[in-house]
Amino acid sequence: MDPIRNPYAPGAGQRPPELAGRDDQLTAFDVVLQRVARGRPERSLVLTGLRGVGKTVLLNALRSAAVRQGWGTGKLEARPDQPLRRPLSSALHQAVRELGHGRGEEVEHGLGVLRAFAERAAGSNAKLKDRWSPGITAPAVRGRADSGDIEIDLVELLTDLGGLAADAGKGLAVFIDEMQDLGPEDVSALCAACHEISQASLPVIVVGAGLPHLPAVLSASKSYSERLFSYQRIDRLGRPEADRALSAPAAEEDAEFTDDALDAMYDVTGGYPYFIQAYGKAVWDLAPGSPITGEDVAVAAPEAERELAVGFFGSRFERATPGERDYLCAMADAAVAEAERTGDDSRDPVGAVATADVAAVLGRTPQALSPARDALLKKGLVYSGERGRIAFTVPHFGRYLRDQT
Predict the structure, then answer these.
(1) Exposed e or buried b for every residue in 360-381, given b needs 16+ CB within 10 A?
(2) What is the DSSP letter of 320?
(3) Is-cis flag, bond preceding 349, omega within 30?
(4) Does residue 289 share a domain with residue 347?
């Protein structure tokens, strides 16, 4: 097959040629946009799921939908070592520019409040050379969104910018990727701001994406967060959607998969969108021609697995210390043992395992392994959806670890 015409795109956050299985989320979001723009009450949105299920791709697709509706939008990626104020200022600055508001004084005031909010990131006593410039020429509005308390400031900022959007007859949307990496104070501030703008019926929404434990992070910050956001779990694709993700791009290039090839592809990918693209690319490059057969998949699978072992799995495994790697391998062994106890005959059990079982594999106590577990949680390699249990954030990671030993 001609590699130049290969339609598959295994990239981080890169939109696949066929965005299969996400029609319900896109349709529901269009309803949210139109309701908010009309002053109807709607909740902000949170997408959760494992790595590789397409959260970032969907987040970008939702942003594109907002842009098509004439909304002002901005996007940021949360980082555990960076407070929210600066990246949010940049995202909101872009959103205000996209609004295209025609009334100069109101825009000048909104940008001035945004500048005051942004400049407060350096602290009130910071020297001029240490102050961060947000690229806003409007003079800062003193006494608004510049108290230094992120919760107070964010409520004031989004209230003012929400009013600006309402005056323009449009909406404002902020998209936050890796939302679970926000600090506790920033999470609390964001929840408070969403609560305030919702009560005021302002046309502002926040769309966040993160790992499966993100709802617990939000709930720990504000008890009302369970009612504040609409939570949508983004999971692997079902068989029909996975087949469409492969077949539709191939058909655009006058190629096709046989039924046994689609069977084999679903078996090796598990329906995870990133793996569908990775295996699809490898199979296309190595197949002699169309139609692509199950035998072609068998020949190409080792090549795809080698690529994943280096770029997708290996890069994450290398971030762990030797002690943390032992913990990860013990998780994989504990998952297999639990699957055997429960009669799960899948090749790659992906459920959570008890931390006590992981400790038993290593012959240690759970308390003694707490530092390794906490470090892995901070690195985003594992997550805890419930007390006493732990799971990989990356699908097929347990299988990768077992193959390495």
Answers:
(1) bbbeeeeeebeebbebbbeebb
(2) S
(3) no
(4) no
Q: Please compute the mean of the pLDDT values over residues 43-47 and round it to a whole number.
A: 94
The pLDDT tens digits for 214-244 are 999 999 888 778 888 999 999 999 999 999 9
Looking at the structure, do residues 76 and 45 belong to the same domain, yes or no? yes
Tell me the pLDDT tens digit for each residue of 24-33: 999 999 999 9
Does residue 5 form part of some domain? no
Last residue of a domain, one of 255, 287, 317: 317
Residues in the chain: 405
Q: Mark whether 84 and 172 lie in a shared domain.
A: yes
Per-residue pLDDT of 119-146, as tens digits, reads 887 655 555 544 566 678 888 888 999 9
Q: Has residue 12 been placed in a domain?
A: no
Structure tokens at 59: 């987040």
Pairing, β 382-383 against β 353-354 = unpaired
Tokens representing 63? Answer: 């942003």
What is the phi/psi pair of residue 11, to 5°? -125, 155
CA distances to 72, 114, 119, 177 from 192, rounded to whole Å, are 21, 18, 21, 19
Q: Residue 177 in 3-state DSSP?
A: strand
| Number of domains present in the structure of the chain | 3
Q: Give me the residues paired with residue 230 across strands.
A: 45
Residue 374 lies in domain: 321-404
**Whether residue 190 sits in one domain with residue 77:** yes
DSSP string of 68-91? HTT-EEEEEE-BTTB-SHHHHHHH
Q: pLDDT digits over 52-80, tens only?
A: 999 999 999 999 999 999 999 999 999 99
Q: What's the CATH number where 267 sits?
A: 1.10.8
Name residue 210's beta-bridge partners: 48
The pTM assigned to this predicted structure is 0.90
